[in-house]
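Exercise (ungraded).
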Amino acid sequence: MTLRFDIPEENLASILAKAFGNRSFLAGFIITALVAAVAIVSFFWTPYDVTRLIIADKTQSPSPAHWFGTDHFGRDILSMIMVGARNSIAVALVAVGIGMGVGVPLGAFAAARGGLVDEALMRLNDLVFAFPALLSAIMITAIFGPGAVNAIIAIGIFNIPVFARVARAGALAIWPREFILAARAAGKSRTLITLEHVLPNIVTLLLVQGTIQFALGILAEAGLSYVGLGTQPPMPSWGRMLFDAQTRMVVAPWMALFPGMAIVVTVLGLNLLGDGIADILDPKSRRQR
Amino acid sequence: MQSLLGRRTGQNMTAYLLKRLIIAVLTLVLASMVVFAVLEIIPGDPARLMLGMNASADQVELLRNQMGLNAPLALRYLHWASGLLSLDFGRSYTYSVPVIDLVRERVVVSLPLALIALALSTLIAIPVGLFSAGRHGRAGDTIAMGAAQLGVAVPNFWFALMLIYLFAVWLRLVPAGGFPGWGAGVWPALKSLFLPAIALALPQAAILARVTRSALIEVLNEDYIRTARAKGLPYRTVLWRHALRNAMIPVLTILGLQFAFLLAGTIIIENVFYLPGLGRLVFQAITQRDLIVVESVVMLLVAAVIAVNLLVDLSYAVVDPRLRSRQ
Amino acid sequence: MSLLEIENLSLTIGGTRILRDIELSVAPGEVMGLVGESGSGKSMTALTVMQLLPWAARATGRVTFDGIDILSATEDQMCALRGDDIGMVFQEPMTALNPVKTIGEQVAEGIRWHTKASRAEAEERARKMLDRVGLPAAQFPLSRYPHELSGGQRQRVVIAIACALKPKLLIADEPTTALDVVLQAQILDLLRDLVAENRMGLLLISHDLAVVTEMADRITILRHGEVMEAGDTARTLSEQLHPYTRQLAQASMHVPARARAHEAGQGKPLLQVAKPLLQVERVTRDYPGRRISLFKRSAPIRAVNDVSFSMAPGQSVALVGRSGCGKSTLARMVLALDEPTSGTIRFRGQTITGKSEADLKPARRDMQVVFQDPYGSFDPRQKVEKLVAEPLHVLEKKPTNAERRQMVANALHEVGLSPDDMDKYPHEFSGGQRQRLSIARAIITRPKLVVADEPVSALDVSIRAQILDLFAELNQKLGIAYLFITHDLTVARAITEAVMVMHEGKIVERGRTNEVLDHPRSEAARALVTAAPDLHRAIARRLQEQG
């Protein structure tokens, strides 16, 4: 499949002006900023201490004292969700960093070299692609035992071929352009051309993919923690909270409701943000509006 | 000339299919090496693990020899890999039965679940995508895509919990979990797979519907759609006859990727519904450090992912005549 | 009684006015030419008649076709008209056909839809239609897919679709713009014959005055969405009453004023000089053939076949030929962007084939390039200063920032732009201005040779004339030699003194531009010359026909 996209011919200022006029971007930006703010606040203040277990307060339904209720150890669910946010964000962010840091250079290199180098790198990509994040996590856990770091590595590895593919496809769409030919006629090396012309023109593409992978990372971290392959207790995590809630669905449904909604809102925000960025930067999709 | 062309076309198709097949086999071999290597670097001696802490060094050594653990690395890989080919995955440390028996027992739960979910998500997504693209920019489209946007953000296992709460705890329509086994009859078995399949399918359907819609909209902007409309075909006819098949190419790509996600999702969802599938097997094996079972299941799932991707590659050739004649 | 009658048509798209008070009519059997530069609203006029406008479009006025009021017709009524009574041919044959359906299906589809014929009947009619447009069954069975056909063949399929039901009106929107001159002549002949056979009305849309003059009985000239002048083709163009008509006609025939310094040495052998600037010796370029099985490939394709020539300093040479003849491949090898399979290329006495990028630096300094597409040849992320300065990369001594800005300012000045433009982005410039930027980038290192690949073919005629003037001026002032790659003989005639005609990878004819173009000897050159539309000739012929 070939990727086609138009390079937007605008500068940063006009893009920013447009961004905040885009509903999808604006909503996504606000939600994401809010989640990030909650995570930061949790470092300094939470309504209750999440490390203290008060069995007397266990499985209380939502009330003015505990907005989202308490869990089976009497911990405040709102406080746990706040602390869990920073865990989710950290894992997903580092995993995106790993994916971009390794995948983008690989993809750009494959596109610049072509031929056998490209073929070999893409086959390597296929190999990594055959291991969904959950399977990598299972293998890593089988070796090193469970932990949040496993989740980061597993999701990060999963991200590498994704970014490599996007970067390669984007770069392949740039390379045949005449301005690249002009740069080659000016005696610039492939590396220099990649740095000066190719990467700046696929940044937007990578940004959109970045928000998608960030959202997927949050979902994956929750899933891994839920099955016990990710963040370990007592560190609060959204996935783990859902695991604890599962056996108590009848007595304390709020234990499942609120952490799940936290995941949905965060992922929704990131996806809206990504859609917004894609909308703003792709003149073709904008024309249809 | 015509026959000459026909033959050339056929050969190129074979070349394409052969290349995809070779790549798939190569990937499978490399993947098996990775899995084997992981098995090798795991700390702990499986023989010691099987015999327990009280066994003497001699007993352990004897078992090591019996298990072939003292042979050279390459030989052991070949032995293991050829075992895989004849479906001999070795024996489980904890159950002391051939792994293949355990897998066979469990795969009849996981595979139907994944397939039902895949079918369900496709059946929901494609019509929604068509509906939305046909009403591009209008209220129906906005509502459908709003729902899809929300669906993409929902983790399937949480969605499963909510479904259990609604249908099993509150409405008491279906069992909250467990699996009666196919021996109990097809209908009770299917009934217990119903909620898990929905939980798996809906979030995937949301992704697929979005992809279908955007692929269709992209295709609808192509010049040949204008040509078709200039022939006098109504918009809906053009959508069905000209746009859908061209839009299938990106949709197929996503469908292939989704199968991998569905497999992973199955493993997680089985834990929500207490289904005795591969997922339960693998997590029990992890806690019991029954590594040979873990590796076998992982290898099996990796092989499934590779096979499905091969299938997708082959279906491109059916959909797109350009692949049949162009390298 | 007109077949198509457009009165007072105005059109806005999302609030932007596209057309204003358009008046136009086509009688049965008549060819109406609609001419204008890009953005004049020609295509939108056609799409209004078809009612295939983008949905934000609002049209007012009256459009009557065969007694039916088009603007108030329902979608069902329009579906009945489209493809049956009105056929349309589009500009881009490469994308106008559905890639996953056979040509037979695509031609038969409209027939089945409108006549309710059975599949077999429709396919039989489709077969006849394809035979008629020059795609015989032996080579082009109904089961062929579009990607197995060339651009010209695909355009024939599109014409077959449009004419399958013998419509009363055929609309052809730039039907030959994407094709080379020889194919253009063939397609125009086909359209002319089809129209005559079936007494169809033809609305021919084109930016090319010469094409329209050759084809049309009457002509309507459009500019910025308004009709400038309309009337009998021959009279309108011979009298040139309206200033815009005159401007268009003159730009179409424009020849830059040059002191013909190089023509002084008449009789001096061209293209074979003692101290050549560029020397191409027996250069061949093969591309690997299509892969026919996993291990076998078909015979390699020879894009350039044993080509030799040389150019003198300051000389302006055209390399002309049909699309796919190998001229662009040859140009890329001259620019050391591609390696010949065999043969050598020497630039200023130095071999440039098989050299590393580092060894090529001296050659790169003296050799620059101008591309066809003024939009694709600039990185949209960079400012003009950086873009124009790009070739300075090859200078031995890196210029300081101030020096660099000075050099860019000079180059911009030389191509008629302001040094203030340095801090703008390329999208702030029009197509013609961008081509000036492209030239500024090419001359900033004061090269000895500029290779220009179709440098004006994407530009409107009036802009084209200005850019040709600029090329001529720089040739005079800076003594730069040009290698012009073009399929347009008027460009070759306008600014080159020697021409080489390329055909199927070989140079089949070479000589003084005027001699070759006036008296072509090789068949390939003759085909090019006779097919090339020429406004003078077309007007003369029209006048003669009318007595």
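Further reading is listed at the end of the chapter. For now, observe: Chain A touches chain B at residues 1, 123, 126-127, 129-135, 138-139, 141-143, 215, 219, 222-223, 226-228, 242, 245-246, 249-250, 253, 256-257, 259-260, 263-268, 271-272, 275, 284, 288-289 (CB under 8 Å). Residues 283-289 of chain A have pLDDT under 50 and may be disordered.
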